[in-house]
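In this supplementary section we document a worked example of the pipeline. Step one takes a protein sequence of length 203 as its only input; no multiple sequence alignment statistics are reported here. Step two produces a three-dimensional model, which step three serialises into structure tokens for compact storage. The input and output of this example are shown verbatim.
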Amino acid sequence: MHISEGVLSAPVLLTGAGLTAVGTAVGLKKIDYDQLPTLGLFASVFFVASLIHVPLGPSSVHLILNGICGLLLGWSAFPAILVGLVLQAVLFQFGGLTVLGVNTFNVAFPAVLLGGLCRNCLHSDFTLVRCVCVFACGACSVLLTAVCVAICLTATGESFASAATLVILAHLPVAGIEGILTVFCVEFIRKVRPEILPANSPA
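The serialised model returned by step three reads:
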């Protein structure tokens, strides 16, 4: 869901960069040394998942998996996603360095928000409740990211209104797929590496 360079206005770029700087600073402060392998793992997951994308006007459609990043990393999702986006911009010219702040915030903020809201469900003994919450986290993280992208586009100019609407509509099926993938990933982790799951506490 990268926004291309040369699209957004300077105020939108500066706002995104500022918010990402704050989120990344908080994320780095909250990183535990023991969490570094998990952080690297999910930075790689995000990097690979969003490599296969379909261009859509000034943006693109692809898997993000930011919901599971938010669930397991909390605020540390900001630096993890930032690293993934930097590598994509440098190696494959996806997005770009000037829009790095906006793209990072658009992906990481929904991850942190929804991950924080749904994290306590990870340890529920009721499978249905747990799966519904995790699905909602995965799906809604994608939808909120699409909304953030749409807001950035419309804040730049009314000419992007139709593209903003298209971005949201195009990610409706992606949201469903991401919700299902997030459930499968969490249930798999519960079985093989439950120690990766965060405790019932705020991010």
